[in-house]
Write a structure and sequence with these properties.
There is one protein chain. The protein has helices at residues 5-11, 13-21, 31-41, 76-87, 107-111, 123-136, 177-181, 187-203, 221-237, 246-263, 280-283, 302-324, 338-355, 362-369, 377-395, 448-456, 591-594, 596-599; strands spanning 23-27, 47-51, 92-96, 115-118, 140-146, 149-155, 170-176, 403-408, 415-420, 434-440, 470-474, 477-480, 502-507, 518-524, 531-534, 561-562, 566-568, 573-582, 602-603, 608-610. The protein has 628 residues and is of the alpha+beta class. The strands form four sheets. An eight-stranded mixed sheet has the order 3-2-1-4-5-6-8-9, sandwiched between helices. α3 runs parallel beside α4 (76-87) and α3 packs across α15. The longest helix is centred in the middle third of the chain and has 23 residues, at 302-324. 43% of the residues are buried.
C-alpha cells in the first residue's frame, strides 16, 4: 500500500486529497501507458479508468513491464489495470478494450473525468481526444516518445495551445504510379499497394470519388486513366460485400484479371521477370490453417496467405456493411486492428508471390505499414513520470506552473528541457471554436430543419452570433448551406447524426474570420425538451483575429489529385500521406530560445523528428514496436 506522506510534504494534504478523489482517464496502455498507470497507482490516484484497443503481443514484453508471457493475446488495458490494483489495493481501476473514437464515448462520457492522459500511438485518435477534451472542458496531458526523445505538454481549452494549434504537414513518401500499379520490385511496393490502394478502395470512405476528375498531363494521362478504371472496377465489387463470393471476386480481379492484363503488355517484361497469375481454387484448398490465429512472426505458406485473405476480407466486409447502417462512414487502416493488418499483410504477400518478391511476416508488414521504429523503455518511464507531475499540477489548479517538457539526447548527456505552455493559436481550426452540447430527445424524429429553427430562435443572451446565413457541416460532409437545403426535412439519424457525433455551424457572411464557428456535440436529452443547448456559461470570449498579409505565392500542391489515402501529383507519382509521421512542432516558436542544440532538432507533436545529422524519423507513437 502506497504511503503518500512524501507527496503531502511536497504538494500539501489538500492536493493529496484531490488526487485520491480525482477521476482519471488513461487512453492507451502500451509503452507509456504501462508506466503511467503504475505511476498513478503509486502516487495517490485512486480512481483510474484505462481504455486501449490492442491485445498484448510478444514484442511488447521487452518494455511494457506490466505484461508477462502468459498475458499474450489478452487485453492490454484489462491486464494493466489488474496489475496496478495489486500494487495498491486502494486503487479503484477499471478498463475497457475499445476504440476511443467510437461514438459511444461522447462528450458526456469524457466530462465525467477530471483529467485525461494520452498515451496513444496514432494521429487520428490523438486529434479525436483533443477535440473531445475541448468539448467536454476537461484538461488533457499529451505525450509521446521516439527512441531516446520524448515530449509532454498540457492542453487546457482557451488557456494553452491545443494539439491542432500548430500545423502538422504530413511527410510524403513518393512512389511512381506505374511501379505501384504494374511493376513492384520490393515488399514495400506491395504493402503500399495493399494498404493505400486496395484496402482504401474497398473499405474506406468513398466520398472523394470525383477527386480524380482533373486535367491530365501528357506524362500522367495513361497511368491516371488506368488507375481510374481499376478503382471503378473495385468499386463495383463493393456490391458483393456480405456474400460468399466477395473474397473470391476480389482475388480474381487483382491476382488473375489484372495480372493477365499486365502479361498482355509484352514489351514491359523484356527486361523484367513477368508476374504469375494466382489460382484461387488451388490456393484455397483446405490446409488445417486457422486464419483467426496466424503466427505473426512466421512467413506463411501461399495457401495460408490465401486463407488469411479470405478470412480478413469477409470480416472487413461485415464491418463495412454495419457502418453503412450506422453513423460511421468507413474503415481506416490501423496497425493494431487485426482485421485491417491481416488483410494488408495477406494481399501484400500474395502480390509479392505473384511478382516473385520476398515475402514478409505479419509482424514485419506491421512495422513497414506503420513506419515503426524501436522504442526505449527508459524514455517511456521518464515521460510517464513527467506526465504524472503535470497532472498533479493541473488538478491542484496550478496551470501556470505547468510546462511543455522535452527529453533530449545529443552531444551532451540526456537532459530534460522545459518551456512555458504556449497560448492558443488565434487561427486554430479546432480550439477557436465555441463548443456547446446539443441535447436531442430523439434523433429519428428531429430533423435538421428543427435544429436550425431552434438555433435561430435562441434568446439574445444565448445567441450563437452566426447571423442568418448558417452552414452546417459534419466532418467533411456539407449538410446544409443557403444554396443546399435538400437535407432540412431529413431526420438527424438518417443523416448519420446521433449521440457522439459533432456538427459545426459556420456563417456564410464571415468574410474576415471574425465570426467564431460553433461546434455542437450531440448528446442524449436530460429533460422532456426535444432540443436543448448547454455550455454557454463556459464558452470563452475570443479576441478579434489580426489581419493577415496576403501572399502572392501559390501552393505547390495546387494541381495535386487527392484520393482517400494518397496523392497523385501532376508528374504521375503516388505521394503517400502517412498519418503517423508529422514534421511540425507543437511549440516551435520557443525552440530557438532554449538552446542552439535544440534548435537543430525539429519537434513534432510527440517528439523530435531529426537530431543533428542522424535524421531520426519518428512516428506519432508511444507504443513503437521493436524490430527483431
Amino acid at each position: 500500500m502506497r504511503d503518500t506522506s512524501q507527496l503531502a510534504k511536497i504538494f500539501g494534504d489538500h492536493t493529496v486529497a484531490q488526487l485520491s478523489s480525482a477521476r482519471v482517464l488513461v487512453v492507451g496502455a502500451g509503452g507509456i501507458g504501462c508506466e503511467l498507470l503504475k505511476n498513478l497507482a503509486m502516487s495517490g490516484f485512486h480512481s483510474i479508468h484505462s481504455i486501449d484497443l490492442d491485445h498484448i503481443d510478444l514484442s511488447n514484453l521487452n518494455r511494457q513491464f506490466l505484461f508477462q508471457r502468459r498475458h499474450i493475446k489478452l487485453s492490454k488495458s484489462q491486464v494493466a489495470t489488474a496489475a496496478i490494483t495489486r500494487f495498491n489495493p486502494r486503487v479503484r481501476a477499471s478498463a475497457e478494450q475499445a476504440n476511443i473514437t467510437n461514438t459511444q464515448y461522447d462528450v458526456d462520457w469524457f466530462a465525467q473525468f477530471d483529467i485525461v492522459l494520452n498515451a496513444l500511438d496514432n494521429l487520428e485518435a490523438r486529434r479525436h481526444v483533443n477535440t473531445m477534451c475541448l468539448a467536454a472542458r476537461v484538461p488533457l496531458v499529451e505525450s509521446g516518445t521516439a527512441g531516446y526523445l520524448g515530449q509532454v505538454t498540457v492542453i487546457k481549452g482557451a488557456k494553452t495551445e491545443c494539439f491542432e494549434c500548430q500545423p502538422k504537414p504530413v511527410e510524403r513518401k513518393t512512389y511512381p504510379v506505374c511501379t505501384i500499379r504494374s511493376t513492384p520490385t520490393t515488399p514495400i511496393h506491395c504493402i503500399v499497394w495493399a494498404k493505400d490502394y486496395l484496402f482504401a478502395q474497398l473499405f474506406a470512405e468513398s466520398s472523394d470519388e470525383g477527386a480524380m476528375d482533373v486535367e491530365e498531363t501528357a506524362e500522367n494521362s495513361d497511368e491516371l486513366s488506368a488507375l481510374r478504371e481499376e478503382s471503378t472496377a473495385l468499386a463495383k465489387l463493393a456490391g458483393a460485400m456480405g456474400t460468399q463470393d466477395f473474397a473470391r471476386l476480389v482475388f480474381d480481379k487483382v491476382f488473375d484479371e489484372d495480372v493477365e492484363r499486365l502479361l498482355s503488355m509484352k514489351d514491359m517484361w523484356v527486361q523484367r521477370r513477368p508476374p504469375t497469375v494466382l489460382d484461387f481454387a488451388a490456393l484455397s484448398e483446405h490446409t488445417g490453417f486457422d486464419p483467426a490465429h496466424p503466427d505473426d512472426h512466421a512467413v506463411l505458406e501461399p495457401k495460408e496467405w490465401c486463407a488469411l485473405f479470405v478470412h480478413s476480407a469477409e470480416r472487413l466486409a461485415q464491418r463495412r456493411l454495419a457502418m453503412d447502417q450506422s453513423t460511421q462512414s468507413g474503415l481506416v487502416f490501423d496497425k493494431d486492428d487485426d482485421d485491417t493488418l491481416h488483410f494488408v499483410a495477406a494481399t501484400a504477400n500474395l502480390r509479392s508471390l505473384a511478382f516473385g518478391i520476398e515475402q514478409k511476416s505479419i509482424f514485419a508488414t506491421k512495422a513497414m505499414a506503420g513506419n515503426i521504429i524501436p522504442a526505449i523503455a527508459t524514455t517511456n518511464a521518464i515521460v510517464a513520470g513527467m506526465m504524472v507531475m503535470q497532472a498533479i499540477l493541473v488538478l491542484a489548479q496550478r496551470i501556470p506552473e505547468c510546462h511543455t517538457s522535452y527529453v533530449t539526447y545529443g552531444k551532451r548527456a540526456r537532459c530534460i528541457i522545459k518551456e512555458p505552455l504556449a497560448e492558443p493559436n488565434p487561427r486554430c481550426p479546432v480550439c477557436r471554436r465555441r463548443y456547446l452540447t446539443l441535447r436531442v430527445r430523439d434523433c429519428a424524429q428531429t430533423t435538421l430543419g428543427d435544429v436550425l429553427d431552434f438555433v435561430k430562435g435562441l434568446d439574445l443572451d444565448r445567441d450563437l452570433q452566426l447571423g442568418d446565413d448558417i452552414s452546417v457541416v459534419e466532418g467533411t460532409r456539407m449538410l446544409y448551406d443557403p444554396d443546399f437545403d435538400d437535407n432540412l426535412s431529413k431526420p438527424l439519424y438518417e443523416l448519420g447524426i446521433a449521440s457522439g457525433k459533432m456538427i459545426t455551424l459556420t456563417s456564410e457572411d464571415d468574410d474576415d474570420g471574425s465570426i467564431v464557428p460553433v461546434v455542437l456535440s450531440i448528446a442524449a436529452a436530460k429533460s422532456q425538451d426535444s432540443l436543448a443547448i448547454e455550455g454557454f456559461e463556459s464558452v470563452p470570449i475570443f479576441a478579434p483575429l489580426p489581419q493577415l498579409v496576403s501572399a502572392d505565392a501559390e501552393s505547390d500542391d495546387e494541381d495535386d489529385v487527392i484520393t482517400d489515402d494518397f496523392v497523385v501529383d501532376d508528374s504521375g507519382a503516388i505521394v503517400l500521406e502517412d498519418d503517423d509521421v508529422v514534421t511540425s512542432p507543437m511549440i516551435a516558436s520557443a525552440v530557438s530560445s532554449i538552446s542552439e542544440e535544440l534548435s537543430k532538432r525539429k519537434l513534432d507533436e510527440i517528439s523530435v523528428i531529426s537530431q543533428d545529422d542522424t535524421k531520426r524519423r519518428a512516428v506519432s507513437d508511444d507504443d513503437i514496436e521493436v524490430l527483431d
